[in-house]
């Protein structure tokens, strides 16, 4: 747990494992552009990010925010149950419900869910057995993200977003949204067009979603990711956010890094 601006930030580990065969590539192909010597350094400095054959080992973290005065916000909902849209490539089932229970939180206690983006490993845990898991929560997503998914279609739209829309639980934002004093959701495009992150204080903590996926991108923000929608924009967003955090001695909370909090 980390406390920033009197807000408790609690990491919830949903799963750990490599990508499944449908998406798995050598890590050097998954993050193109990194020099060979940088990979040598990463393997020495961040061994938990690599498996025995050199494959990328991901953590799947969600983050619970508990501001003073009450009102719980959950950032992302993980990979979901065994039959979720993430099952084709992620180590389902996710453990988010158990992790929440371990933090003393029932799904009905959550008042806001921020979906950083609508990829299956970040949104699938929002719906279980066809019903919203967090029935009392407003689910905040950027309008651009929602519009893009509607155009593309697919299992996340059908199995996750439509049940949330049918229940009237979706709030579509057009830009920055304030969640609580010192807590706001901000657009951070590149990985997807409507990607958003959560900022605490004056760039004291960034709950980053997929702005940063691997430690190699902290070492060199220009290193891109094979599955970014717009790699150049993602790299520019990443470089800007990391520069702002570093100028203030801030911390990044990124779902897929070996450690949930990294001082940058």
From TrEMBL:
Keywords: Hydrolase, Metal-binding, Zinc. PANTHER family: QUORUM-QUENCHING LACTONASE YTNP-RELATED (PTHR42978:SF6), QUORUM-QUENCHING LACTONASE YTNP-RELATED-RELATED (PTHR42978). Belongs to the metallo-beta-lactamase superfamily. This is Metallo-beta-lactamase domain-containing protein. Residues 59-256 form the Metallo-beta-lactamase domain. It comes from Actinomadura macrotermitis. SUPFAM superfamilies: Metallo-hydrolase/oxidoreductase (SSF56281). The keyword Hydrolase applies. InterPro entries: MBL_superfamily_lactonases, Metallo-B-lactamas, RibonucZ/Hydroxyglut_hydro. GO terms for molecular function: hydrolase activity; metal ion binding. Signal peptide: none annotated. The keyword Transport does not apply.
């Amino acid at each position: 747990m980390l406390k920033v601006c009197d807000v408790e930030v609690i990491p919830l580990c949903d799963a750990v494992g490599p990508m499944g065969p449908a998406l798995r590539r050598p890590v050097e192909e998954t993050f193109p552009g990194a020099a060979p010597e940088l990979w040598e350094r990463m393997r020495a400095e961040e061994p938990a990010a690599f498996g025995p054959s050199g494959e990328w080992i991901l953590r799947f973290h969600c983050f619970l925010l508990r501001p003073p005065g009450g009102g719980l916000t959950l950032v992302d909902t993980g990979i979901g149950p065994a039959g979720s849209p993430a099952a084709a490539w992620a180590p389902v089932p996710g453990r988010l419900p158990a992790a929440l229970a371990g933090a003393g939180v029932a799904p009905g206690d959550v008042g806001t869910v921020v979906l950083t983006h609508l990829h299956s490993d970040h949104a699938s845990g929002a719906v279980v057995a066809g019903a919203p898991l967090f029935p009392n929560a407003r689910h905040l997503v950027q309008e651009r993200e929602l519009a893009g998914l509607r155009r593309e279609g697919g299992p996340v739209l059908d199995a996750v977003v439509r049940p949330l829309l049918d229940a009237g639980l979706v709030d579509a934002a057009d830009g920055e949204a304030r969640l609580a004093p010192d807590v706001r959701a901000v657009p951070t495009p590149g990985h997807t067009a409507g990607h958003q992150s959560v900022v605490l204080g004056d760039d004291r903590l960034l709950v980053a979603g997929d702005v940063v996926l691997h430690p190699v991108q902290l070492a060199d923000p220009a290193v891109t990711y094979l599955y970014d929608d717009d790699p150049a924009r993602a790299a520019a967003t990443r470089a800007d956010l990391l520069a702002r955090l570093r100028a203030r001695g801030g911390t990044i909370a990124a779902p897929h890094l070996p450690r949930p909090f990294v001082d940058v």
